[in-house]
Amino acid sequence: MKKKISLIFGILLMAFLLIPNTKVMAEGTAQDYTTGEDVTELSTIALKTGDDKDLKNYATYSINVASDAESSNVEVIFPMTLSQKGILNCAFVFLDSNPSTSYGDFGIYSDAACTKPIDYNTYNYYAVIPKKGTYYFKFTVSDYSDEKPEDGYYFGFSSNFFSGADRNLKDKTWSIAGSEVNKPIYYKVTTTKSGSLTINLESEYSSTITLLNSSKKAISEETTYYSTDTKAVYAVGKGTYYIKVASNSELYRIKSTFKAVTDTSGTTKAKAKKLPAGKASKGLVLASDKAGKVDWYKFTVTKAQTVDITFLGDVSSGEIALELYGNGFSGSVTGYINTVNSDKSFSVYTLGSTKLSKGTYYIKITKKTKNTSGSYTLQFN
Predict the structure, then answer these.
(1) Is the C or the N end of the chain the one with fewer CB within 10 Å?
(2) Is residue 179 within 8 Å of 129, Cβ to Cβ?
(3) Cα–Cα distance between 204 and 215 in angstroms, integer?
(4) Cβ(138)–Cβ(75) under 8 Å?
(5) Order of strands across the sheet that contains 185-191
(6) What would the pLDDT profile of 4-54 be if each residue is shown by its tens digit?
(7) How close are the terminal C-alpha atoms of the chain, in Å?
(8) Could you read off the pLDDT of 207-246 as tens digits, one per residue?
(9) Is 7 helix (H, G, I), strand (E, B) or coil?
(10) Which of 63, 75, 78 is nearest to 25 (CA)?
């Protein structure tokens, strides 16, 4: 995710801007940079959508570590309580005016005694928060000079938080997430009608997406997407579903979009829906349908003429097949949809002729596997 890099630099820049305000602080304290108030516990800001405005939100503190004339090493510890697991994106800057004789260090721990460090990536400036709870932030200074500063040592510290908790997805609204690599998050989606469910995912590295039913049982293939801008599409009926996402990126954004679709196809050849020339019909192959489920359509050619079949669709799991029947055809003309934005349109021709003879023709649409689902558009001209 490219925005992650700009976010880190933004946090570091804000930390450097703390320098003018540090001299008014009492020793061994933390000061909220926004309010100017001294605090005994740190807090952070949980991001929501991950858009440009959201990514600019972070909590920032000035940290004072009291000096000790008798010791070369001093420290101060502040707790932070987090209500969810996830990723804490953070940065600290040691603001000592004489860095040649002193240096600062920083660590995050799961216990008050600071003996159990948690995973903190000093290169990418993030910490993996494995579960909700209180964590402890220790700021340490080592100073081997003979004269220690009277007003202590100063750090700038900034952070924001990317939730790794399971959650509901609001339709057409981005949600940003942070998680250990390949640690799944389950997103709940509820639909009131049958239709097409589109999942958009933005990440820096590859991710896997799986559609689950209300019992969290997989009803699609687990598909790996290597694109940083991913789109998966499923066809679902009314009900509750979960989207299982495991990503190689610590941070990513996800959005679900539902569009109701009325499927008027015929369930048998005898009940095949008539296709008027030039008018598109939309169909659904639901995740809940059994493998081999069939939709039927028919069209009539009143005289020998050329015929074009438009067969478009979105399928992220499995395969939807088209077969043409009638006047000597027995499924020998076929088309398959198995990707998002599939276009399997074609012109129908017979041996020795580009025209179809007068008569009625049937189109059979089949769900090829148990985990197939998707939407399609069908038209003849």
Answers:
(1) C
(2) no
(3) 30
(4) yes
(5) 167-168, 185-191, 239-247, 207-212, 223-225
(6) 433 443 444 444 444 444 445 666 789 998 888 999 999 999 999 998 899
(7) 44
(8) 999 999 999 999 999 999 998 889 999 999 999 999 999 9
(9) helix
(10) 63
